[in-house]
Write a structure and sequence with these properties.
Strand content: 25-35%
Order of helices and strands: HEEHEHHEEEE
Distance between the termini: 82 Å
Number of strands: 7
Radius of gyration: 20 Å
Oligomer: single chain
Largest sheet: 7 strands, mixed
Structural class: alpha+beta
CATH class of one domain: Alpha Beta
Amino acid sequence: MTTTATAPARIVDLSSSSTLHGYEAIAAAIGLRSIRTITEELPGVARAAPILRAASIAVIANPWAGTSVTHDLEPETQRIAPVLAKLLTDRLTDVLGGPDAVQAFGKAAVVGLDGEIEHAGALIHTPYFGNLMREALEGTSILCFSDARSAAGSSHRIPLWHKTAPATRDFYQSLEVHLADAPHPGELAVIAAASTGPRPHARIGDRSTDRVITSDILKELPL
């Protein structure tokens, strides 16, 4: 019986290089079909600078499509998730002015109909993605997120909050992303989003200014 040897994986070092150009080899290795970055500019309040928000979206072949619900997701998660984190955060820092400019962040994944929701989670809910995104954007907060399973052509809202102070209510916001041609049934879309500021007209207070509220407030409601 003749056996075919599997070529060893090519080892690359992306730790200190940019993936904005010349990323064709790693794109092929992870089944990347497309990557795009959308930006939104919100006029500044008074004389403040405009707030910039951006989302980078990578569409890849779902490496687990057609597998059973007992299939081990770890090997492909470890191989693909760090590359996605690098590709997406390189583009966010490029359009937003560097990690210092980023104040809020969030993440999302959308799996096509031939996959399961756990496939989306496998690429964003582990340290292989989250830790690298936090490090690249100089954050410490747990990343807020959304995940979904849908056909191509849907819209998704990506939640964001402050990258180092998640309880800072002024930075609670979301960015809507329309996936016109993704994900196909056997694909996944992974999204990283960030903002250079809070909501443009935030004025609902914060935990530092809130008075103590309990269910006692229900006893005398001025309706």
